[in-house]
Amino acid sequence: MCAIAQAACSNDRIRYWIDALARTPAPTRDIVRRVCAETCVRLWAAAQMERVPRIERLVRAGAWVDAALLVIELDRPGWHLRRLLYEDGCWHCRLSRRPCLPDAIDDAVDASHASLPLAIMIAALEAQRRDAEAPAACPPPRAAAANSPPEAAQAVCCDDFS
């Protein structure tokens, strides 16, 4: 289990599990453990190892939603649950990198399933796929600003005095 988890997870493997979960009617201990073992690489990092037993306890107890939300918290730390909607017998889950932004400019992923925990897990896998496709060469905005000399920064007043 750990050997697979420590290897980098390919987009093909992520796509395989997205499709497998879409065909699964309800979560089971086996499928949740296999998805975590094969795709949730960050869970197996040394810093997270003490939290893995907590996921195991939730899975054993059948607390599928709590387990899926904990997986997002630990394995996809940059993503946040933005929306859960139940409509026409199907759960719709949206994860967002910036949940305070309007929908039109938000970088979000969506997933749907008849089972709430599986909709959340599919959305987490979609977020992982999105992260894998993102260009790694672009530094985050804060890192770029921190490296720039102070004289290059300019203050801008955005108040409306009219």
In the sheet with the most strands, the strands line up as 1-2-3
Q: How big a fraction of the residues is strand?
A: 5-15%
How many structural domains? 1
> What average pLDDT do the residues reach?
80
Q: What is the CA–CA distance across the termini?
A: 63 Å
DSSP summary, beta strand count: 3
The helix/strand class is: alpha+beta
Rg (CA only)? 19 Å
Give the fraction of residues assigned to helices. Answer: 40-55%
Count, helices: 7
Q: Which of globular, elongated, flat, extended, rod-shaped describes the shape? A: globular
Low-pLDDT runs: 1-7
The arrangement of helices and strands along the chain is: HHHHHEEEHH
Characterize the main sheet: 3 strands, antiparallel
What does this structure look like?
By secondary structure, this protein is α+β, with helices and mostly antiparallel strands. The chain has one domain. The protein contains seven helices and three strands, in the order αααααβββαα. The chain has helices at residues 2-6, 11-23, 29-39, 52-61, 64-75, 116-133, 141-147, and strands at residues 80-87, 90-96, 108-113. A three-stranded antiparallel beta sheet has the order 1-2-3, covered by helices on one side. α2 runs antiparallel to α3 (29-39), α4 (52-61) runs antiparallel to α5 and α5 (64-75) packs parallel to α6 (116-133).
